[in-house]
Amino acid sequence: MEERQKAISVIAPAVKRPTREEAEAAVEVLIRWAGDNPEREGLRETPQRVARAYLDIFSGNFKSPADDLDATFPKEADYGEIVLISDIQFYSHCEHHLVPFFGKAHVGYIPSEKILGLSRIAKLVRTFAHRLQTQERLTAEIAEELQKGMNAKGVAVIMEAEHLCMSMRGIRQPGTQTLTAHFTGVFKDEPIRQSQFISLIRQNEK
Ligand SMILES: Nc1nc2c(ncn2[C@@H]2O[C@H](COP(=O)(O)OP(=O)(O)OP(=O)(O)O)[C@@H](O)[C@H]2O)c(=O)[nH]1
Ligand SMILES: [Zn+2]
């Protein structure tokens, strides 16, 4: 099922969207560029499929990340420590080659006046991941949005991913992991907080 979405891109509202037919024609050109025949049986419906798949893969372009933070609750009594969601699987696409990079996100925050529905953190990761990205920007955007939306005391995000543009082409170095981190608030100001975050992730890995 095709995901319902707004017609206007959140990140590029001024850019005219092509029609679906134009998008399908572009896929057909790429098939020919790859040296194959778009008329052959197996490829005949591929342009339509790819145009449809793009609506899902890049659905984050049509979503406001702030909307993902819509389930909040008053903070429980004295809870003042970190809330960590580790091992959030994500799939994104590198903006240089339009091929996937994928891996795990570890997201922690220290609440101030309210706490966030846990699923909403994974939702936020998905919204930003389902855009053309660099891993660095993806990491920073998740952290900054969570910081802003929750007015958190601090946010810590670490992402580890394999980039297929490095594995299957170019340098052809499969299995490398790229690690990125972004810290705000107390995680930025107090190195001890960063260490706590990292040791909690390690503990979870055991
Ligand atoms: N910093 C950063 N670089 C990335 C990311 N994804 C891919 N790249 C790199 O972007 C660079 C693009 O380099 P270019 O020389 O413009 O393109 P290219 O000739 O295809 O380079 P190669 O990938 O090395 O074959 C490469 O070094 C990629 O590894 C990312 O998320 N962050
Ligand atoms: Zn790439």
Write a compact overview of the structure shown:
The protein has 7 helices and 7 strands. The protein is an alpha+beta fold and 206 residues long. α1 (20-33) crosses α2 and α3 packs antiparallel against α4.
Characterization of this structure:
- The chain is α+β, with helices and mostly antiparallel strands and 206 residues long.
- It is built from seven helices and seven strands.
- It has helices spanning 20-33, 46-57, 118-129, 135-150, 164-167, 185-189, 191-205, and strands at residues 72-74, 83-94, 100-110, 114-116, 132-133, 154-163, 178-184.
- Strand 2 and strand 3 form a beta hairpin.
- Helix 1 (20-33) crosses helix 2 and helix 3 (118-129) packs antiparallel against helix 4.
- The longest helix has 16 residues, at 135-150.
- The protein is globular, with a radius of gyration of 20 Å.
- The chain starts with 19 loop residues before the first helix and ends with a helix.
- Zn(2+) binds at residues 94, 97, 165.
Low-confidence stretches: none
CATH class term of the largest domain: Alpha Beta
Largest sheet features: 5 strands, mixed
Overall pLDDT, averaged? Answer: 94
Number of strands: 7
What structural class is derived from the secondary structure elements? alpha+beta
Order of helices and strands: HHEEEEHEHEHEHH
Q: Which ligands does the model contain, each kind named once? A: guanosine-5'-triphosphate, zinc ion
Gross morphology is globular
CATH topology of the largest domain: GTP Cyclohydrolase I, domain 2
Q: Name the CATH architecture of the largest domain.
A: 2-Layer Sandwich
**Helical stretch tally:** 7
Strand content: 15-25%
> In order across it, which strands form the biggest sheet?
5-2-3-6-7
